[in-house]
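Researcher: Last one for today. Full complex below.
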Amino acid sequence: DTEVTQTPKHLVMGMTNKKSLKCEQHMGHRAMYWYKQKAKKPPELMFVYSYEKLSINESVPSRFSPECPNSSLLNLHLHALQPEDSALYLCASSQLWELEDTQYFGPGTRLTVL
Amino acid sequence: GNSVTQMEGPVTLSEEAFLTINCTYTATGYPSLFWYVQYPGEGLQLLLKATKADDKGSNKGFEATYRKETTSFHLEKGSVQVSDSAVYFCALRTQGAQKLVFGQGTRLTINP
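Model: Here's the assembly. Have a good evening.
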């Protein structure tokens, strides 16, 4: 089974709201990722957690705050977002194997910021 | 730097036509190569992968061969179906890196 789940599927929020996106995997993967995807573009990496520690932050604004409570869960806390942050947010996970590492993606959360 | 170049879309074909989507890459060392597919309104699904030269990845009738000499990983399918309509992304990951480098994506539409 290569399933990554994400909730909610859709989210509409105002610029003053605080919300969270959730991601879960039960494949025993040790790395989890957040990507942002704008329409008609490829995904852009935001954050990577390896063994529950933040290993990559691609210079993402602080209004996005990731959290990895355990090896199966990944959250993205959102605060004071801008309309240009509206996008599809994708979570992925991988085994962290050196040669064969493969990222598996969830269905995404479509975020609209009003 | 590392990069992936895909043929520009959109690509429109009739059902049962032969499909080729070109993908070439620039990378240091020997990257792993991937094709992902994104159906409308969904996330990315791994379609196939190859981790070393001359490897052939295959899945659901799609194939791609890792060609080190031409730095290519072209996606092919012998007979496409309407259900293959989607956006296809070619991607690479270099050894030791966690970041995927994506091509721009190719939108494929199959008409009945």
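Chain A has a mean pLDDT of 94. The longest strand of chain A covers residues 18-25.
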